[in-house]
């Protein structure tokens, strides 16, 4: 499922109606501009429509105040709206989110072809979700004690929903799910193993940061806690440590790759200013890897081609878990000129400065709000 168009009216600095079109032939899109231009607003708008939809079908008040705050923060008045046009296979659907102060979650949704939306964005088997990674370096880190684990209610859908509704809790939610699935497999083994997604994400992670491996789980390192250990190859002797001690970039990378591998498919990975998390070379390698995963076969083809690197994963399990997995789009806000140059060869660049304009590679020199870009 792809985003074809976003329409903003009365959304933060976008007072008049603005339409952003996403080229069907491209999978990587960047938005650049000075601070306050509205590039983050564009990214958050797509995610907020999804968040409001899941709030509507959840029907509970667990996240309703958070949804209301986000709607009131982005939509300036009750005449404001965000409209999302999405396409999946041969069908299209649109969702419009308006501010509604009389609704318990602060919004009102209207649909065209609601069936297509609900086929993908549902509570039982959420797929083609928009994974939103914000620019904050803060990560929620919670301990996972022996008493916290309840394998009888273990469900990957819960962590996917939490990632949609509370992306700031992504790392802690992923961490808890990993430990729960590990313990669940120890008590009641399953085929395919419950942690296939983790082993695939581990190979993706290690391809980008080869000196750091995801090691093993332990209930003996810290009293009363289960932890996931990472292993850094520094010097002759590897050093093991709790992955909660990873750098912000390592945490962001690990969380993103694991959540990419959890649902059956991902519509879009939406990343707000990834340069806040990654140094330049890792950023370019990460986006290049994600771009590779948008090709036909995606995660499955990449993993089969790289399965011999490290511990091999059962190929029948891979086929069963990832044969229908897709990643369709990567949407980024950025100040990185290097990433913008890179995107000319793999996608589309846009400049945000009151209007939203394509950055055309056909020009020899383009003056943009972040400086002069030579093409």
Automatic annotation (TrEMBL):
Name of a matching Pfam family = AAA_21
The UniProt keywords, alphabetically, are: ATP-binding, Nucleotide-binding
Q: Where is the ATPase AAA-type core domain?
A: 33-339
Q: What molecular function terms (GO) are annotated for this protein?
A: ATP binding; ATP hydrolysis activity
InterPro entries recorded: ATPase_AAA_core, Bact_Antivir_Def_Nuclease, P-loop_NTPase
Signal peptide (residue range): none
Indicate yes or no for the key word Cell division.
no
What protein am I looking at? ATP-binding protein
Naturally occurring in which organism (per UniProt): Billgrantia kenyensis
